[in-house]
Task: inverse folding
């Protein structure tokens, strides 16, 4: 039977990525490393099966759109403003140093100035995916130094988006072969088109997109909502490229920013991320397929020099900036080592430059080799943070110098991280806001427990927000929604949803994200006990049990049985039902 090349490419790429992703994950490295290696395995420069490069590239384009859509979706200006005093100047200095070093190295190996600048810009930006994974693995994501590192990369991402915006404009001038006023006119017209695109998307989008998402959400169809999110990402990205001549990446980023302003952004992110992750895998596989080992043989010095900038030049530049701005040793080391790798944005930029003949094919091989090595080494470098910090603290003079610089700013940073919230005796997430959920929330209020409500009824969520309550539209089974509700800081999760499978899934996800939270569940049938126990629910209230007990009490009361005997019978019934759970 004939199998289409597209199916073969998908099957081989995903299978190789799965296998090598598992291997790299077990070795403590990022799965991205495995995906790149999978591309090398199924690529044209290694023996054995060769996937269809044309199909892989087209699938990778979808990966780029969804990656950039996710970046825009999660872009939050308050997050950046909180660490702007270090993230903005730090990212500017570090990016300039890395770009300059990359350009000098490329010129030294006979590349053109343009290709050198592209190489420098590609190695200047680190992978947000890799950084966040490393921070999470070392319990540093929700720390001051973790916030600084993420804010730093947000600024780098913005720089890269600006570069993606300007490259097509400058290329149009070169292709026209003009100078002086004509060149200025072409640049001005290109910038005008891009400015018009941004203005249209950011002016009209926030009015139309949230309204449309609300309409779809009221239909209570998760499939239609997911389809809407995907259609917005692809339509805006494609329209930006076809009508305005912008890159797909820029259009997708703008689409993500618009959807991110909606009150439904958490559910949109939850729906988009699985698709993004699947196509992002194909993107990294397609990048790996471009790796030509002959580039290493022809110019090993270029690869080593590029890797040196990534592993030494960038971290030193970042370390110096962070220390001079008065941050702690831990923050300086976290930012420096977190930047010692390259990833998705590097390849997006290189692909665009390559399509416009600004970057040689050999450059992509250099970047792939550098990414494989730097991503592979990054977990090892992160493990050096504690020994390096201990070594510095063992030297009193050096420690005093760091502490003097960090003391004043340490209080400022801590203050910026602290929001004004009403005092809470505890924190709880209530999933489902039917009659049961409403009763639970009222009790929480009476006993000073701060609650966040998650529900899939958009009208209910809108009413709760208008009343000043914290409420999220979303599916409680999605980790992104639970985390957005503050699961990491919550003491309790109360699950009141009526569907048994949904309840079990919520418990499983919540327990995996917060092992210490107490998860209390409403359940219909005693038969659900085994499933809830497997997923480590703390306790469950079974409606079948409660109805049996209450109906028995009512019946015995009606036939005149004394209250003391009714109480004894109630305990006996509960004991019998409890034995059925065992």
Result:
């Amino acid at each position: 039977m004939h199998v289409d090349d597209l199916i073969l490419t998908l099957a081989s790429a995903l299978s190789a990525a799965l296998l090598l992703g598992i291997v790299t994950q077990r070795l403590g490295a990022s799965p991205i490393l495995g995906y790149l290696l999978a591309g090398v395995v199924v690529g044209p420069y290694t023996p054995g099966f060769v996937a269809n490069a044309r199909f892989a590239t087209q699938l990778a384009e979808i990966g780029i759109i969804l990656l950039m859509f996710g970046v825009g979706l999660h872009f939050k200006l308050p997050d950046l403003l909180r660490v702007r005093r270090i993230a903005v100047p730090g990212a500017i200095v570090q990016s300039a140093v890395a770009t300059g070093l990359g350009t000098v190295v490329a010129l030294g190996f006979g590349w053109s100035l343009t290709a050198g600048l592209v190489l420098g810009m590609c190695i200047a930006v680190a992978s947000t995916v890799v950084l966040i994974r490393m921070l999470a693995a070392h319990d540093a994501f929700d720390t001051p130094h973790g916030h600084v590192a993420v804010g730093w990369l947000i600024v780098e991402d913005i720089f890269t988006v600006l570069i993606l915006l300007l490259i097509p404009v400058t290329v149009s001038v070169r292709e026209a072969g003009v100078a002086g006023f004509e060149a200025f006119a072409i640049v001005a017209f290109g910038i005008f088109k891009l400015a018009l695109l941004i203005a249209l998307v950011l002016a009209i989008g926030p009015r139309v997109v949230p309204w449309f998402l609300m309409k779809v959400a009221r239909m209570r169809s998760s499939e239609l909502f997911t389809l809407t999110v995907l259609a917005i990402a692809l339509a805006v990205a494609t329209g930006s490229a076809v009508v305005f001549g912008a890159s797909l990446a820029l259009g997708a980023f703008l689409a993500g920013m618009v959807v991110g302003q909606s009150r439904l952004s958490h559910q949109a992110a939850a729906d988009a991320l699985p698709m993004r992750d699947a196509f992002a895998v194909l993107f990294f596989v397609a990048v790996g397929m471009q790796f030509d080992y002959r580039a290493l043989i022809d110019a090993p010095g270029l690869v080593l020099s590029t890797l040196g900038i990534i592993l030494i030049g960038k971290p030193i530049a970042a370390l110096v900036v962070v220390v001079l701005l008065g941050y702690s040793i831990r923050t300086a080391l976290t930012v420096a080592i977190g930047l010692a790798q390259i990833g998705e944005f590097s390849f997006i930029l290189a692909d665009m430059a390559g399509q416009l003949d600004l970057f040689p094919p050999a450059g992509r091989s250099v970047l792939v080799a550098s990414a494989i090595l730097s991503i592979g080494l990054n977990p090892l470098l992160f493990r050096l943070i504690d020994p390096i910090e201990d070594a510095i603290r063992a030297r009193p003079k050096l420690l005093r110098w760091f502490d003097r610089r960090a003391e004043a700013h340490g209080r400022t940073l801590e203050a910026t991280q602290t929001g004004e919230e009403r005092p809470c005796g505890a924190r709880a997430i209530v999933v489902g806001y039917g009659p049961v959920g409403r009763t639970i929330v009222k009790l929480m209020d009476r006993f000073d427990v701060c609650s966040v409500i998650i529900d899939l009824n958009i009208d209910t969520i809108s009413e709760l927000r208008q009343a000043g309550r914290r409420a999220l539209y979303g599916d409680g089974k999605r980790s992104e929604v639970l985390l957005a509700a503050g699961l990491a800081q919550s003491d309790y999760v109360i699950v009141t949803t009526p569907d048994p499978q949904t309840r079990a899934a919520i418990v499983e996800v919540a327990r995996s994200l917060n092992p210490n939270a107490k998860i209390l569940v409403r359940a219909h049938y005693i038969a659900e006990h085994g499933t809830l126990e497997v997923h480590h629910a703390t306790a469950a209230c079974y409606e079948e049990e409660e109805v049996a007990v209450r109906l028995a009490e009512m019946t015995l009361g009606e036939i005149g049985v004394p209250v003391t005997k009714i109480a004894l019978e109630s305990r006996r019934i509960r004991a019998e039902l409890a034995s059925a759970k065992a």
About this structure: The first strand starts at residue 426 and ends at 431. Residues 270 and 480 are 6 Å apart (CA to CA). Confidence is low (pLDDT under 50) at residues 410-421. Strands lie at 426-431, 449-455, 471-473, 492-495, 518-523, 539-542.
